[in-house]
Design brief:
The chain is of the alpha/beta class. It is built from eleven helices and 15 strands. The strands form three sheets. The chain has an eight-stranded mixed beta sheet with strand order 3-4-2-5-1-6-7-8, with helices on both faces. Strands 9-10-15-14 form a four-stranded antiparallel beta sheet. α3 crosses α5 and α6 runs antiparallel to α7. The protein is globular and about 55 Å long. The chain binds adenosine-5'-diphosphate and magnesium ion.
Amino acid sequence: MLRMSDKKNSGNPRLILYTGKGGTGKSVIACATGLKTSSIGYKTLIVSSDPAHTLGDALENRITDSPTKVSENLWAIQIDPIKEMEKNYAVIQEWLTSLLSAKGIEETLAYEIASLPGMTHLFALLKIEELAREKQFDVIILDTVPSGEALKYLYFPKLFGSISRKLISMVGSIAGIARVIEPLIGVPAPKKEVFKSEVELIKRLEMLADILKNIDITSLRVIANPDAFSIENTRRTLMLSSLYGINVDLAIINKIIPEKVNDSYFSNWIELQKKCLSEAEASFYPLPIKKLMLFDSELKGIEMLKRGGDELFINEDPTKIYFKGSPFKIISKENELTLIVKVPFTSKEKINEVERIGDELLVRVNTEVGDVVKVIPLPTVALRMKLSRAKLLNDELQISFVDEYERK
Ligand SMILES: Nc1ncnc2c1ncn2[C@@H]1O[C@H](COP(=O)(O)OP(=O)(O)O)[C@@H](O)[C@H]1O
Ligand SMILES: [Mg+2]
């Protein structure tokens, strides 16, 4: 039987975050993982902030907004992001609103603050910080990390921290005289408790960022289904997560039709999925990939989810860090941006063609088994730059862009 390894990270819980498009299987895989880790002996908490209450449905239990025991060593919690937001943010929000509606605020700053629609995600993550700090659990599994572009919520701690800092220094310098000149400049002065709660919030956001970026504590795991759309979305998630400095240690392809399905109706699907799987292997390299088959009915209830966990992890400990490193690296200096992408090729192979289509780069490589196309999603900054060079060095593809506007 699998045993719990020595407690890691000097009492810090292990944090496993599942991301992927809606319906790919985040909730059920989070539950399956939790059932596996709890059976090994880890005190495990599964966390969801999905308003659809999918955790309760999957575990066939009523899950509330405080940890609810589901089975031995296993608890689940359904975070209410609105409640969390009110708890943490009400004082600041009230003041910010009045601040924004007043004149005299630097436009870009006001814009940045006004465009924070993902606040609820942020506060769900803040709850994670609280739970991690309390150290009541060995493993915390989150099933609701939004995918793709929305992944920037994980970056919010840093972004929000820096905005807040700007605000604090700006407001701090005027706070003393603000009350006197308030009628003149039309900016409402913050009350003392605004500062107190702002400083508190920044501290917690910074702690959250530390936890998320700690490769020994946090792993992001991407879940995809075997279809082209889902694989593409995952590629982008991988690019963004390395941009944001969050370690992805595993990819899971879920809902694969088993080959034993011997029905002509599905034979095309099976072929198509095979193609997608080999595409995923080239795209996600060198990230390890696990596969989970499509069960013959909805993956639901503790017994079935346990089976899912066993199929997925067999006799492994799911808390292990499957991979450290980054399939993408982004180096930017002066007016040049270089993407370094790990690829399953060698220097012997030749780049045939590099083509840019929209926000993606298609690199055609001539290999022993014919041409292989590697699709690379581009970060937003590269979109206004010009492709200057592409070369293959061992298992790395280096692509450089120059910013023509700055060169002048
Ligand atoms: N491998 C699988 N076999 C059968 N049904 C699955 C499988 N994975 C997920 N499902 C079903 O697909 C639906 C979506 O899964 P869910 O975990 O809720 O997705 P997400 O949380 O990513 O939105 C659920 O009804 C779930 O039971
Ligand atoms: Mg879900």
